[in-house]
Design brief:
about 500 residues; mainly alpha; 5 strands
């Protein structure tokens, strides 16, 4: 069964049906567009939400050392990645469905217009042929009527006794001419009728069925393409479900990482004062009389409560350079941290000094490369910085020794100093060669492993394969992308949801 055979006389209904199908495609495109707008708005709101509750500042970073704070930050990061997947759904729906179907809709409109135009032309041609047939038929009927009149007139003239022989011959010739003309018109009518019947047969059994069958094929292709668009609506979201599942699993795992005992221990380590608990107060015997006011009484409140100052919130001691205003445990931690910072700065300054000395030597050997005297201000400034840092390091180490007390702490400090000197000596081996060009190498901020394969086709992106180990050069700034260094040396941006941070 097909349209050309069964619907040969239903042109108007096929016109309406095909137009209705095109309108449905257009409605579906508009529906998907509104869905993408919802996804984009949803993703934007999720990103704003995660950004709103993200910790910022030194105090918040300190809180993130606790597992329950850190887990909440991981949840916000996973939510941000989840928002990126919603944006990806919206983008793929727009490009894969809306754009493609819009282009297909334009093509099918043009094809439908062509088919309807062909049907109109065929109908107009048949109607024109029928008009010619009617005209030939009328002319034939008219000529036969005139021929019959001429024959009757000829017979009347021949029977008239008063008519001359010339009149009779003339009437017969006229009747014969009329009859001959009528015969020609009849033959033309017969030929036109045969031609019309042939054209009508071709119109109803060949041309119109072919056009209608093409319209049927067009409509069925339109239905199939629309069905693919329906399925694509689901497939686009199903393709990102594994990544969305990873995000949800990450949120669940963040909750599992919380360790309440560890958080309690961390709080103790951060705020442990190291003070001894106050001793019992001694009983004062007043039976022997009250002691003079100038005596050193044990009931003197400032002396009795001297060690309870950490609980006094109204009178906070001023900060001191040696951190003596802090409790013993906290003072030791702050001093140790300060010594580590100064040691790093000292090591960095020493490396810089050695590099300048090497550069100066190269300039002295090859004056065309530069003037050695131009480096003297930098060398002098670096030497002053080294001297200053060593003085600060010695000062803080002395304070630490006082805070820790005992010779064991001094030995530990000396061991640290010897280790720093040994590390400085070993670092000199890195300057055995000097290059003409100095290039600063960007230090990775972390590492990650690719969870999925990504094809970096656009400018600024790189391709990665599942399982590939990458170096993170720039974290996700909230836009769903991060800059990495691939195993092959390529550098560029990739979706942050396609990787897992860590080794």
């Amino acid at each position: 069964m097909d349209w050309g055979t069964d619907l040969w006389d239903q042109y108007d209904h096929m016109d309406k049906h095909t137009q209705s199908g095109i309108d449905l495609v257009d409605r579906y495109i508009k529906f998907v567009k509104e869905r993408t707008e919802i996804e984009q708005t949803y993703a934007k709101q999720l990103r704003s939400l995660s950004k709103k509750y993200a910790k910022r500042g030194s105090k918040e970073e300190q809180d993130c050392r606790f597992s329950n704070h850190a887990s909440f930050q991981e949840i916000l990061n996973e939510l941000n990645d989840y928002a990126g997947q919603r944006e990806l759904i919206a983008e793929n729906m727009m490009t894969g469905i809306c754009v493609e179907l819009t282009k297909y809709l334009q093509d099918i409109k043009l094809e439908r217009k062509t088919h309807l135009s062909d049907a109109k032309k065929a109908q107009q041609f048949l109607e024109g042929s029928f008009k010619n047939l009617e005209s030939t038929k009328k002319r034939s009927a008219k000529e036969w009527a005139e021929a019959e009149k001429a024959i009757q007139q000829s017979e009347k003239t021949e029977s008239d006794l008063n008519a001359t022989r010339l009149d009779v011959e003339k009437a017969k010739q006229h009747a014969h001419a009329r009859t001959h003309t009528a015969e020609e018109c009849r033959n033309d009518y017969a030929a036109q009728l045969q031609k019309y019947n042939k054209e009508q047969n071709s119109y109803y059994y060949s041309e119109i069925p072919q056009i209608f069958n093409k319209m049927q094929d067009m409509d069925e292709r339109r239905i199939r393409r629309l069905a693919e668009g329906y399925c694509q609506f689901s497939d686009i979201e199903k393709k990102v479900l594994p990544i969305i599942t990873k995000c949800l699993e990450g949120i669940y795992a963040a909750g599992g990482k919380i360790n309440e005992k560890q958080d309690s221990m961390l709080l103790i380590e951060q705020h442990k004062s190291g003070f001894e608990r106050p001793a019992d107060l001694e009983f004062e015997d007043y039976t022997q009389g009250i002691k003079p006011a100038t005596s050193d009484s044990s009931l003197n409140p400032p002396k009795v409560r001297a060690k309870l100052w950490p609980f006094n919130k109204k009178h906070k001691p001023p900060a001191a350079e040696d951190f003596s205003h802090l409790p013993p445990e906290q003072r030791k931690k702050r001093l140790q941290g300060k010594i580590e910072d100064i040691s790093r700065d000292l090591q960095k300054t020493q490396d810089q000094s050695e590099a300048l000395e090497k550069m100066k030597g190269v300039y002295e050997q090859s004056p065309q490369m530069g003037d050695p005297s131009s480096l003297e201000p930098q060398i002098s400034e670096t030497a002053q910085n080294i001297s200053r840092l060593r003085g600060e390091l010695s000062k803080y180490e002395t304070w630490l020794a006082e805070a820790v007390g005992g010779e064991e702490s001094s030995n530990a400090i000396n061991n640290n100093i010897q280790h720093s000197v040994l590390a400085a000596d070993q670092s000199q081996s890195f300057y055995t060669e000097f290059d003409d060009e100095f290039e600063e190498v960007e230090t990775p901020v972390g590492h990650c492993r690719a969870l999925y394969t990504f094809e970096g086709n656009s400018e600024g992106t790189i391709s990665i394969t599942e399982g590939e180990l990458l170096s993170v050069l720039e974290d996700d700034k909230g836009d769903g992308w991060m800059r990495v260094l691939g195993a092959g040396g390529d550098e560029g941006y990739i979706p942050s949801s396609y990787v897992k941070l860590g080794p």
